[in-house]
Amino acid sequence: MATQVHHRACHLCEAICGLVIETDGTEVLSIKGDKNDPLSRGHICPKAVALQDIHQDPDRLRQPMKKIPKTDGSFRHEPISWDEALDTAASALADSVERYGVDSIGVYLGNPSIHNYGMMTHQGALFKLLRTKNRFSATSVDQLPHHLTSMWLFGHKLMFPIPDIDRSDYFLMLGGNPVASNGSIWTVPDIKQRIKDLKARGGKLVVLDPRRTETAEMASEHHFIKPGTDALFILAVMNVIFQDGLADLDHLAPFTDGVEIVAEAVRAFTPELAAQHTGISAATITRIAHDFAKAEKSICYGRMGVSVQRYGALNQWAIQIINIITGNIDRVGGSMFTLPAVDQVRNTGPGGFARHHSRKRGLPEFDRELPSAALAEE
Ligand code: SF4
What is the pLDDT of residues 338-347, one digit of tens each? Predict the structure, then answer.
């Protein structure tokens, strides 16, 4: 059989690197990075090369299996057709709803479902049919503060400003490690080269992290910060920007309100106060605030380290406020809203918070989901 060439995207992480896959019949001959992919530019990591091993693994499940009890109490697995598998699942769901109501069904979505086009576009229809309030996902142990902030600040849970690193001058990063993650809520393949390019054109990457991460190793500056104190640092940066007259909303001014309320709210959060708790000196905090505000195109970005902690929502809110008060939202070289091929901002509702609560602990929902921490008890 003749060799065939397929152009695909790797869906194993958010970087969605372009791949060129050569096959001969069902056999994979090679998997390489696609040099013509405008985003990943030929980048590939060992995980994508190993897709071949998954594809050809003799132990891989290739059809549904039914678990059948044996007389000695153990189980065996028997292959069944897709029709039988789907009918079995559907009738068990219907039976549970009939006997105990819609909330007897629990749904959990793992991270890979977000990297799956079909799930992304059609999960809403499935949930509408199931009608259960018991929906859970990895969101509540990951990026929920981003969704809350986006809903409250920009009007939709999926309005994520994405760092435009390729055109930026100054990048302030807290609790993120894109060299390992490939840019969580960012999508940035080949990040190492992008950081090198930023520095080569005179730009700066400033990383705050309690750990000397792989990204911190490549940064222009790395400041160790005491875990869980990021909010004080960010609020102090904001304080300096307001107090030293560096706030400039620029193109955002005509439609942004409430800035004076924020300025008043952060008045007490001085660099001196932050220095006592963060381990970063007041002089350094003040200098970072000035450097950030005076650079032509700046980005403030924070990820897991500042999301999954006590002040996660406050951190993500404050990070975007810094971007807003320096006019760096939706500006080239700042943090920009995207133009996706399938726009989930148009296709989904804006989100909502605390419209119902979990039964046992009264924890609030977000976007019809309850915290995963409540899954077992619910
Ligand atoms: S970085 Fe690796 S795992 Fe992630 S999309 Fe690219 S090739 Fe796939």
Answer: 998 888 899 8
Pairing of strands 135-137, 162-163: unpaired
Contacts of 131 (CB under 8 A, 6+ apart): 102
**Residues forming a β-bridge with 19:** 8, 33
Closest residue by Cα to residue 198 from 165, 237, 232: 165
Percent of the chain with pLDDT over 70: 100
CATH number 3.40.710.10 is the correct assignment for the domain at 161-336: no
In the predicted model, what is the mean pLDDT of residues 109-132?
Answer: 86
pLDDT number for residue 121: 83
Q: State which amino acid sits at residue 335.
A: S
pLDDT in tens, 233-288: 999 999 999 999 999 999 999 999 999 999 999 999 999 999 999 999 999 999 99
Average pLDDT of the residues in 172-179: 97
Nearest ligand 1 atom, CA 11: 5
Domain 4-56: which CATH number of 3.30.200.210, 3.30.1380.10, 3.40.1380.20, 3.40.190.10: 3.30.200.210
Atom of ligand 1 nearest to the CA of 19: 7
Mutate to test the pocket of ligand 1, among 12, 21, 184 (most ligand atoms within 8 A of CB): 12
Pocket of ligand 1 contains residue 270 by CB under 6 Å: no
Token representation of residue 20: 């060129």
Q: Cβ(12) to ligand 1 under 6 A?
A: yes
Residue spans of the domains in the chain: they are 4-56, 63-100, 161-336
Nearest CA owner, ligand 1 atom 2 = 45
Q: Output the six-digit token pair for 131.
A: 């009608």
